[in-house]
Each structure stands twice: as structure tokens, then as C-alpha cells.
What does this fold into?
Amino acid sequence: EVQLVESGGDLVNPGGSLRLSCAASGFTFSRAWMTWVRQAPGKGLEWVGRIKSNKDGGTTEYTAPVKGRFTISRDDSKTTLNLQMNSLTTEDTAVYYCATDWGRGFWSGSNAFNLWGQGTIVTVSS
Amino acid sequence: DIVMTQSPDSLAVSLGERATVNCKSSQSVLSISNNKNYLAWYQQKPGQPPKLLIYWASTREPGVPDRFSGSGSGTDFTLTISSLQAEDVAVYYCQQSYTTPFTFGPGTRVDIK
It folds into this structure.
């Protein structure tokens, strides 16, 4: 069964750091381009960033509000995606989802996310 | 960045009636290389992650009921639910996956009248 399971969400003080993880199973993780999407309470969806497969260079891209503060990485040996978040502000409070277009066990070619995790909650507050 | 807009913000439709959600992108999401529109539609119910309904503007994801359909090209797109069912109450988002950041529309809430 294809699956993504996020973990690491917590309550953190403004200015603090947090590391989220996403455990993948059921598909060839090493070939998948992986993405983080977040959703602030009562708000819409925001694409946070993505990491390409190492075969495709392993490069990362980020949305402007998190650039320089967030870092996406991957460990193909553990089929795990990570999101290191530094200098957190209240604006980063959200449910964080990992997602991919490998939900059918192969690349869909569409860049549309057919597999999502259940999300992990990050609350930034003093 | 490509800006996505949706209309209406919300709508209420009677059971069995048609629901239509519109999405507009600030620039074309049509790829000249493969003639595909990189536009997806998602359904999100409370407390759940989004679910992919439509990709490439009009291709239904396997397992999605055929009452859901997508149309449009370039910058203007539509999601149609041909006969609204109670389980379709949700927020619907469009997303462009043509160029990063892969921006989402603000969402349209669909309810039963």
C-alpha cells in the first residue's frame, strides 16, 4: 500500500526550530520528487517546496516566505523526507503535508499530487 | 509567481443538480511541448488531506466518480459536478503545476441547498 506518514509537529516558540519527517512506503521513493504543502488554520493550501530525486540532481525549490529559513532534504536509504524549519514565526502555524505524484506506485507525469499524508500540526506561539 | 483565482467563493446546490466552479490563472499553464494544461483540481473535506480529482485539466484520477469533470485551456478552467451528492460537500481547490511555486487557488466551498 502506498503511504506517507508525517511526524514531528509540535508547539514551538517564535524564533525556534523544528524538524518534520515524512515516512514513505509502497513506491520507489528514490525516484519520486517530493513536496511539502501547508495549510494555516481555516485557510487554503500553500505549496512550501519540493526536492527532486537524486537521479535528477536532488535540487530543492521553495516558496518565497520560507526561503532561507526552511530546508528540505531526503534520505533514500530510509525512504524519508525531511523539513527543517528555522526562525519560525506565528505565520508558519499550519498543518504540514507531504505529497507526491507517485500515488499509483509510478510517476504520473502530471506534477499533480495523488498521494498525501495525513499531516502534522505545527503551532508557533509563545 | 502564477496567481490562481477561483469563483465563486462558495455555492449551494440542490441534491442532484449541477455545481460549477471556475478557476483562472494569471498566465497560461499550457505546455507547448506536450499540449497539456498543468491544472489540477482537489477536493478537501474537514480534517482530511486534499484528494486529487482531476489533472491535466480534464483527466479524471482513477477511482473518481464520473460526475466530476474538468474543462478549459490556457488560463480559464472549470470543474463541474454533474449531479451533486451529499458526500460532495467540501472545499475545492485548483492548482497549477506548470511552474514552481505550484500555486493553489483560494478554494470554493460547495454545500447542499
Summary: The mean pLDDT of chain A is 96. The interface with chain B takes residues 35, 37, 44-47, 49-50, 61-64, 97, 99, 103-104, 108, 110-114, 116-119 of chain A (CB under 8 Å). Residues 15 and 87 of chain A are 4 Å apart (CA to CA).
